[in-house]
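hey so i finally got around to running the thing on that chain from the lab meeting. sorry it took forever, my laptop kept dying and i had to restart like 3 times. anyway pasting the input first so we r on the same page abt which one it is
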Amino acid sequence: MHVHLREPGREDEETVETGCNAAAAGGFTGVACMPNTNPDIDSAEVVRFIKEKAAKHLVDVYPVAAATLARKGEAISPMLELYEAGAVGFSDDGVAIKSAGILRNVLEYSKMIDAPVIEHCEDESLAGGAMNESFTSTILGLPGIPNVAEDLIVIRDIMMAEFTDGRVHIAHISSKNAVDLVRQAKKKGIKVTAEVAPHHFTLTDDMLKTFDTNYKMNPPLRTRDDVDAMIEGLKDGTIDCIASDHAPHSIEEKEMEFIYAPNGILGLETQIGLAISELVKKKHLTLEQLVEKFAVNPRRILKLPVPKIQVGEHANFTIFDPELIWTVEAAKFKSKSKNAPYDKRLLTGKAVAVINKKKMFVDDKMMEI
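ok and heres what got predicted. didnt touch it at all, straight out
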């Protein structure tokens, strides 16, 4: 539902091909890639470029186009043209859409094609810190980002979704209050959905005491109360999807001083193991519910067909072993980058093979079938 493939512009960190290899290794036959590339995905040419790069790969790539030109929040992108070229949603991911007025226009245009507006919820005036604002940030002497930075944009977006009757999808939700706001909005019948990344239901800001930049991300890791709220939101259906927010970065960039290092971690190759270990094995979700969060709900939100396993249908599925115990080895990841906080961690549950487009990825190899 949410990955960064970096191409065009930062092929040193990831390419469409290596990102798809990481997706296949992680158990995914399709990914939606975010628009903060260079140039941004704000023209039909860039959408087609990405689609062409992925055309021969097992993994389907669905570009999410920029909601505004160059993601600056000043003028909307050519949304209908982008949709016709293959975009499945719109986002200024990395930042929130700058103003309610522009957001209104984006939502009204997106209604014409029933596409979601995917929002990175962070108030720009409260952004710029290095970690969650908390007792821990004070102890570490690091500038903080308060939860309210997320909550304010979630409130705004929910109100605008209600006003326009458009569809808003909250990306990488991380704040307890934000989950409560989405829960209340759903009860009112407002068209809002949400996703959470595994790091926000498995890690807390205490991890930053090591100053390991692999724990630096945006939204930042938050408190135990926030983590518990993510799990509760998954259990009661407030949070619709689990998304990796796969964000590759070069070793040189991640090895900077903590406040200067870029935000983001790898996620595609650990996502299933983390979800089974932390959600299924701990009785928070069933395997059936996990499949809904990973595969069914994202496709429904993006208006993509949900594959069926039956005679006459094209084979498109994942084979995974929910009991397989394995150790994360970031050095062996298919991704070009290695910025993973879960390196050397023991996990339960792993994809064994993926099948799509008459191809199979198994034992780290791609083959025709």
